[in-house]
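Format notes (please read before filing issues)

Several people have asked whether sequences and structure tokens are stored in separate files. They are not. Every record keeps both together, in the order shown below: the sequence lines, then the token lines. Line labels are part of the format and must not be stripped during preprocessing.
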Amino acid sequence: MLASLLTFLLACTAVAAVPGQSTALIIRQSIRGGKRAGVATVLGNESGVFIWGCAAAFGFTALLAASKIAYDGMRVVGACVLLWFGIQSLRAARRMKREEAAQLPDEIDDDHRTKGAWWSYRAGLFTNLANPKAAVFAMSFLPQFVPAHAPKLAAMILLAVIWSVYEVFYYSLYVWSVQRMRAFFSRRKVRRRMEQISGTVMLGLAARMVVENS
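Then the structure lines:
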């Protein structure tokens, strides 16, 4: 049992280590709103992971995978969410460039609505729930670790809990790392570059989500 759990946690680590929209959003919010916003984004993302895990346990994600219309609809919604985040980041970068030209004081003064804990939680949640690949992945990932003689429903829900809780701690390391370099990230030029990178990554992920399997 312990060996199976360790194997599952190693697999969770490998999954979390692959860069994607969740990673980009967590880092973005950690830079914008500090530790509180970063942790809230992580909790929102992992709420989505848990929801998809439970949906996989009850067989709902299988219906999504079988319905091309539903899958494509979610894919478009997910792309729109990423597109919006990307545009917001690029707009923030342009604003910072104007502030640099005007030689305004070098301080963090982004839109407070996008830095709050509740906004960040919803951003993490919606980004995850709007990604149909997350749903299909949960359906294919969790059953591999269900013990042969265990009740499938209860085991998959338990695995979903472990998966989401483990990733809370994993992604919190990203938040902690950003906070350790807070003095560096508080410089406007650095924040502008990070917003540009974040925006470009989000737009690229949105484009990939649209064209993938289309």
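For reference, the curators noted about this record: The chain has a mean pLDDT of 86. Residues 21-211 form one domain.
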